[in-house]
Specification:
434 residues, alpha/beta, DNAb Helicase, Chain A, Rossmann fold, 9-stranded mixed sheet, 17 helices, 49% helix
Length: 434
């Protein structure tokens, strides 16, 4: 086994170096680093000293740490001065990334420990199958508790009352919006949950999701992580550039090949603006849940702030199980995406192709029944947005109407429709009046 998969000595040194130089446990507290998260025994002991000094109200600096290690009646490490020197020799380029790696490797060690326990127990011929399953489940629950802490514990009504008061009155209720009044008026802000963006073929799912990402970046500076299995990064970047410049994406290639074109400067300025966006793109043709979660961690580590995640689209993701029908499989994918959204507290927008039979109905607008027909997914999403574009059926080139029906909304109003105008050629949307 490659020990680097589960151990993180370089990252541990980097984080300890940062704490020692800055006399601060801010990043440690932010990432909830614990003593057991360290894989190197001496680093674990040094971290314990940092915590002890902090609890005593003392500074975590070279003098205090050295004094603690050399005068303590119980000798914690064999060569304290050599240990501190090795820590100070480590540069701290990105302590937040180091903290994230430490937590990730710690989780891997715990999972492997649970797997080893299961393997050992499975060789015990005297244990009943149901008892074996119970033991394995308990080991995995231990890992879950260690990773998520208090998030999934039981709460009394008194604690719930205090929690909801803090939640409703806190600053984080100043939620970002999309800048489209008719839709913002219904959603009342974008929350950290799963948004299912559903529509049939030709309804503009990709254009609408891209436009939402652009709105959140431009209006709020919110980083966007976009998974685009159907497009290469160049194709996706072209559509982003089209949104920025207002130039039809089909015309950009022609302009790019002609420096004398009258829109050349507009395109060049748009490219410069694109380069400044807090945008991250993964064009893996089949991104697994592990890849999605890993990329979220990377962006959070780099940016040190919250973000929005876009997955275009659900049916393009690889299977997470070999068992069950397609409907159950899509439901499992949605469940895992919901877990990721909750774990990292990020809004996660998922595109979804609805049941094709919906196009044969008289109204043709999506409803919950047509989405359920696409799999067991409606129950997993907190918000479901159904898209409809009448021009797809009428073939009227002058029809720019675009409807967004809020089919489900755990946070409030639903059954209402926002009316926008769209230009799919530039992936731009704006409010309209009915």
């Amino acid at each position: 086994m490659d020990i680097t998969i589960i151990d993180s000595p370089e990252s541990e040194r980097e984080l300890l170096s940062y704490v020692l130089v800055h006399s601060s446990l801010d990043i440690v507290e932010k990432y909830e680093i614990q003593e057991e998260d360290f894989s190197v025994l001496d680093y674990k002991k040094l971290f314990k000293v940092f915590k002890a000094l902090n609890s005593q109200g003392k500074r975590i600096d070279l003098m205090e740490v050295t004094n603690f290690l050399t005068t303590n009646s119980v000798k914690l490490v064999a060569e304290p001065k050599a240990l501190i020197a090795s820590i100070l020799d480590s540069a701290y380029y990105n302590p937040e990334s180091a903290a994230s790696i430490i937590k990730d490797k710690s989780l891997r060690r715990r999972i492997m420990s649970a797997a080893e326990f299961a393997k050992k127990e499975s060789n015990n011929l005297l244990i009943e199958p149901q008892d074996l399953l119970a033991s394995m489940q308990e080991e995995l629950l231990k890992v879950e508790r260690q990773v998520h802490g208090d998030r999934y514990q039981l709460y009394s009504a008194n604690k719930l009352a205090m929690s909801v008061f803090d939640y409703l009155t806190s600053e984080h209720q100043k939620l970002p919006n999309l800048g489209w009044y008719s839709l913002d008026n219904i959603l009342e802000g974008i929350r950290p949950c799963v948004y299912l963006v559903a529509g049939g073929t030709g309804m503009g799912k990709t254009s609408f999701m891209l436009a939402m990402a652009m709105q959140l970046m431009k209006l709020h500076g919110l980083p966007a992580l976009y998974f685009t299995p159907e497009m290469t990064q160049e194709q996706f970047a072209t559509r982003v550039l089209s949104n920025i410049t207002g130039i039809n994406s089909s015309d950009l290639l022609q302009i790019g090949r002609n420096e004398q074109h009258h829109k050349w400067d507009t395109m060049s300025q748009g490219i410069a603006q694109l380069g400044e966006l807090p945008l991250y793109v993964n064009d893996n043709s089949s991104p697994s849940m592990a890849i999605i979660e890993s990329d979220i961690r990377k962006v959070i580590a780099q940016r040190g702030e919250k973000m929005a995640v876009f997955v275009d689209y659900l049916q393009q993701l690889p299977p997470v199980s070999k068992d069950g029908d397609s409907a159950s499989e899509l439901g499992r994918r949605m469940q895992l995406l919901d877990n990721i959204s909750k774990k990292y507290q990020v809004p996660l927008f998922v595109g979804c192709q609805i049941n094709r039979s919906n196009a044969t109905t008289q109204d043709k607008r999506p409803d919950l029944f047509s989405i359920r027909g696409s799999g067991e997914i409606a129950e997993k999403a907190a918000v479901i947005l159904g898209l409809f574009r009448s021009a797809y059926y009428s073939k009227d080139p002058g029809d720019y109407s675009f409807e967004v029906s809020v089919l489900k909304n755990r946070w409030g109003r639903m059954g209402e429709t926002a009316y926008l105008q769209c230009d799919l050629g530039t992936s731009t949307f704006k409010d309209t009046t009915v």
